[in-house]
Every structure is written in structure tokens, then in C-alpha cells.
Amino acid sequence: MTLSLAATALGLAAALAYLFRCWAFPYGRCWWCRSDGRNAAGYCNACHGTGRRVRLGRRLYDAARREYRDGTK
């Protein structure tokens, strides 16, 4: 019982830390060009040459806010 409670608390703490990171720092490194902005073919299409991409959690947060905003009009 205490092991499952500790695992739940650890998972909740990790989720809260990720949510804070998505809120405070919405952009992460580009996985394709490794923040260089360029790859072997020229400018990176994944990040449009910036080297930064919006995190998945931030995209989900923005989609939820957009859905809430559009649904209450």
C-alpha cells in the first residue's frame, strides 16, 4: 500500500514539474536539427530554422484553452 502511494506521489510530482516546465518554458530544442536550425538538406523544416519547437504538453494546453474559449462563445 505505501509503495503504491509513493509511486503515485512520485508520478504526480513528475507531472506537476512537467506542467510547470511547459508553462514557464514553452519551447524546447528541436529534435531534428538539435537546435542548430539546419540539417543535411539545409534549413530544418521541423522548426523552420529556429532550432526551437513548442513542447507537446504546451500544444495540448493551448488546444484545451482554445477549445474552452471557442466553446463558450
What can you tell me about this protein's structure?
- It is built from two helices and four strands, in the order αββββα.
- By secondary structure, the protein is of the alpha+beta class.
- The chain has one domain.
- The strands form two sheets. Strands 1-4 form a two-stranded antiparallel ribbon. The protein has a two-stranded antiparallel sheet with strand order 2-3.
- β2 and β3 form a beta hairpin.
- The N and C termini lie far apart (46 Å).
- The model has no long low-confidence stretch (mean pLDDT 87).
Distance between the termini: 46 Å
Strand order of the largest sheet: 1-4
Number of strands: 4
The computed structural class is: alpha+beta
Quote the average pLDDT: 87
Question: Order of helices and strands, N to C?
Answer: HEEEEH
Count structural domains: 1
In percent terms, what proportion of residues is strand?
5-15%
Number of helical regions: 2
Query: Helical amount among residues, as a percent range?
Result: 40-55%
Radius of gyration using CA atoms only = 17 Å
Spans with pLDDT under 50 lasting ≥5 residues?
none
Shape: flat
Q: Sketch the major β-sheet.
A: 2 strands, antiparallel
Entry keywords:
single chain, two-stranded antiparallel sheet, 14% strand, 73 residues, alpha+beta
Question: In brief, what are we looking at here?
Answer:
The chain has two helices and four strands, in the order αββββα.
